[in-house]
Task: inverse folding
């Protein structure tokens, strides 16, 4: 391999990126946009869930229960209504997520003793928000129930053992202490950006030569196929490293995502991952001599799995077994694991040996295949 | 005029038929995406990997542990010997939750002192952690309430029957099994429509411009409006058939209920298509090459996708972002899709969404037509 020729190809490719403002936008502006969109736009926790209340009892007891809901930061009392029809209409129109219905004889049944049920009608269309809202509502109601029991025992002259709650759960949340969605999403965004920069931009490299008709010129020069490949990919590799630094800096500096690992681990993993995505993008580019087709396939083959099957947003351990098996084939999975560990857990190279090894294997295989994929022919 | 539009349509479809990549692109990726989203996109937490250490080993502690295992939500993957091992299981990501019951747990309970239970949660995935904590709270509340009743039962068994308690009875409407799939599958239809139709329209025009055939068409007697119709109608028809295809997969394969009126959905999709065709046309007026069109559509589609409520709830976004979502036609289509699929809603509820899409569609389409005519001059 002649380094001079590689450098010349690199320089040509680099100039092409620099002079194409839109490629430049993908390379420089897109990471910032993704970070902004996902850093601000992704919040999976639910606060201020809008609720409607239908208090069919209207007693002091029912009001006491509702006060607890009003006091909770998780709920926002939108309206008090006096029939089911309004609840149905509000849930249908999405104005309320949860509606509480207190039964008509709530206070009387509490006085007489025994269990009373309060209805929570939940719009479960968005199952995750619904699930969280029910969790919060259960906590409010069981707190109320405990208070009622305690009060009852006092009045009955029973020893009020439950003056102190019998059980307390002492939580310690590790790695993401405040359970911020942002801390969970942003490390994964680095993987999305690397995939986009790596696979998308490189998938256009050979197709562009074909479409612009410059392939003949390139083939007629003494440069070898391998030199073309290496030369064409070097600029994107460098752009990728710059973008990774940019993402990490914005994530840490602006979004206050903790960074507990070492920069070295981050760079080793990023370099390996870049080799994989660049190789795949290049192979796509060789296989499909059409920029549009190449870039669509690149998105399908690289971005989609990294988005869905890497654990970036959707937890792998909750997927059905066959899909879980497929995730082992997704290179993004290993990179996302490393990213999250480096940012939040502070794991070093040794603790991450497994995913790193997987990336090394992928890089070796893809690198070998990519060098064989491209031949200097015009047919 | 109709004849010229018809010829234009024939030309477009011929082009599509002869472009092997385009045909594959229109069928295979949407199906793959649908299947992947249907199976992989889930925020459900079925089983929480749990590590356990019970130092007390009393009747009470075993009762508490059995409540965790019996709930079906927690899967005990390891019984730890000591705290270090417990911590290690969380560190290596094998356990999401580690429960530690110290010795003296039962004694404290009997004495009426609060008995602490230590819990370590891996917060890396904040959503899973939050939902798991919700499950833990429910179990702990049930344990505490029953323990209190048992205390009453010991001193005054006769009055046990009348101990008051309040429980929450959940009535999940529209998605009783809390299935993420029911939430995502209708959404995928919307996001796929956005991507496919914007790109299709943008590239249909830009390709002509890049190859140089746009000028040939312009010197023919065809009028700009006819050209625009000839370019957008195929995208519209392709968009509708895509929607039908993916909707069928969602209903027949993923068994997501469709409770509404197909005609309402058809109206919603058609209005949405006017928006996306307008966006595609607008992109085509701004770009000279397909590569530029690709990059531009990317910068429009990415925010369109994120700020739509497709997977991340709009209500939890910062106010400025929430305002932006009002400009996004996908936001409205998703309400229509989920409304017709899961809620069985009709126009009397969905008219604001329809109106919004009609307004956005009319605006974008007229701006892009205006710009397009200018770009031809």
Result:
């Amino acid at each position: 391999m002649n380094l001079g020729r590689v450098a010349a190809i690199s320089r040509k490719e680099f100039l092409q990126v620099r002079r194409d403002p839109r490629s430049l936008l993908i390379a420089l502006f897109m990471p910032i946009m993704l970070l902004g969109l996902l850093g601000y736009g992704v919040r999976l926790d639910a606060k201020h869930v809008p609720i409607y209340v239908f208090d069919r009892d209207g007693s002091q007891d029912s009001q006491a229960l509702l006060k607890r809901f009003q006091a909770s930061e998780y709920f926002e009392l939108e309206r008090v209504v006096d029939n089911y029809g309004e609840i149905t209409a509000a849930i249908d129109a999405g104005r309320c997520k949860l509606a509480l219905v207190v039964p008509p004889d709530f206070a009387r049944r509490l006085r007489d003793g025994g269990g009373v049920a309060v209805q929570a009608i939940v719009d479960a269309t968005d199952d995750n928000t619904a699930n969280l809202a029910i969790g919060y509502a259960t906590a409010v109601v069981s707190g109320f129930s405990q208070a009622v029991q305690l009060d009852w025992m006092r009045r009955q002259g029973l020893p009020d053992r439950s003056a102190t709650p019998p059980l307390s759960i002492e939580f310690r949340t590790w790695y993401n202490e405040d359970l911020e969605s942002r801390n969970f999403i942003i490390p994964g965004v680095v993987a999305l950006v690397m995939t986009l920069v790596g696979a998308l931009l490189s998938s256009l490299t050979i197709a562009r030569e074909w479409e612009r008709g410059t392939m003949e010129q390139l083939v007629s020069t003494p440069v070898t196929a391998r030199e073309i490949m290496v030369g064409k990919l070097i600029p994107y590799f460098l752009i990728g490293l710059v973008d990774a630094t940019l993402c990490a800096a914005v994530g840490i500096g602006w979004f206050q995502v903790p960074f507990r690992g070492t920069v070295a681990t981050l760079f080793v993993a990023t370099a390996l991952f870049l080799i994989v995505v660049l190789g795949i993008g290049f192979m796509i580019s060789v296989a499909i001599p059409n920029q549009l087709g190449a870039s669509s396939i690149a998105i399908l083959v690289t971005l989609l799995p990294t988005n869905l099957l890497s654990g970036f947003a959707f937890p792998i351990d909750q997927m059905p077994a066959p899909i879980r098996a497929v995730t082992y084939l997704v290179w993004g999975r290993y990179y996302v694991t490393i990213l999250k560990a480096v940012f939040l857990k502070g794991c070093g190279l040794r603790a991450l040996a497994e995913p790193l090894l997987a990336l090394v294997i992928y890089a070796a295989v893809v690198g070998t295949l990519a060098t064989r994929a491209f031949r200097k022919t015009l047919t | 005029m109709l004849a010229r539009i018809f010829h234009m349509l024939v030309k477009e479809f011929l082009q599509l038929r002869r472009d092997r990549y385009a045909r594959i692109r229109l069928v295979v990726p949407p199906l793959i995406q649908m299947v992947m989203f249907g199976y992989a996109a889930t925020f459900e937490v079925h089983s929480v990997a749990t590590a356990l250490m019970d130092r007390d080993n009393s009747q009470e502690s075993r009762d508490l542990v059995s409540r965790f295992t019996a709930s079906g939500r927690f899967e005990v993957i390891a019984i730890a010997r000591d705290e270090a091992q417990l911590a290690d299981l969380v560190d290596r990501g094998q356990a999401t939750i580690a429960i530690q019951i110290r010795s003296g747990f039962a004694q404290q309970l009997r004495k009426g002192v609060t008995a602490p239970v230590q819990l370590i949660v891996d917060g890396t995935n904040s959503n899973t952690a939050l939902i798991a904590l919700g499950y833990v709270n429910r179990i702990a509340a049930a344990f505490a309430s029953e323990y209190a009743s048992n205390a009453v039962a010991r001193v005054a068994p006769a009055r046990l029957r009348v101990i008051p308690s309040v429980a929450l009875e959940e009535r999940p409407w529209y998605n009783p099994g809390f299935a993420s799939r029911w939430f995502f599958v209708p959404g995928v239809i919307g996001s796929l429509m956005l991507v496919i139709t914007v790109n299709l329209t943008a590239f249909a025009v830009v390709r002509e411009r890049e190859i140089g055939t746009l000028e040939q068409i312009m010197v023919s007697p065809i009028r700009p409006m006819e050209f625009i119709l000839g370019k957008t109608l195929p995208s519209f028809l392709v968009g509708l058939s895509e929607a039908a295809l993916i909707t069928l997969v969602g209903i027949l394969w993923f068994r997501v209920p469709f409770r509404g009126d197909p005609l309402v959905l058809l109206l919603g999709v058609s209005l949405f298509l006017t928006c996306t065709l307008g966006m595609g046309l607008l992109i085509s007026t701004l770009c000279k090459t397909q590569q530029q069109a690709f990059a531009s559509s990317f910068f429009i589609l990415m925010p369109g996708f994120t700020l739509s409520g497709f997977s991340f709830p709009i209500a939890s976004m910062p106010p400025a972002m929430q305002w932006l979502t009002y400009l996004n036609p996908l936001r409205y289509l998703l309400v229509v899709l989920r409304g017709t699929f899961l809620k069985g809603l009709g126009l009397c509820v969905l008219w604001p969404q329809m109106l919004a899409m009609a307004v956005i569609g009319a605006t974008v389409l007229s701006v892009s037509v205006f710009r397009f005519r200018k770009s031809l001059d």
Summary: Residues 2-42+179-376 of chain B form one domain.
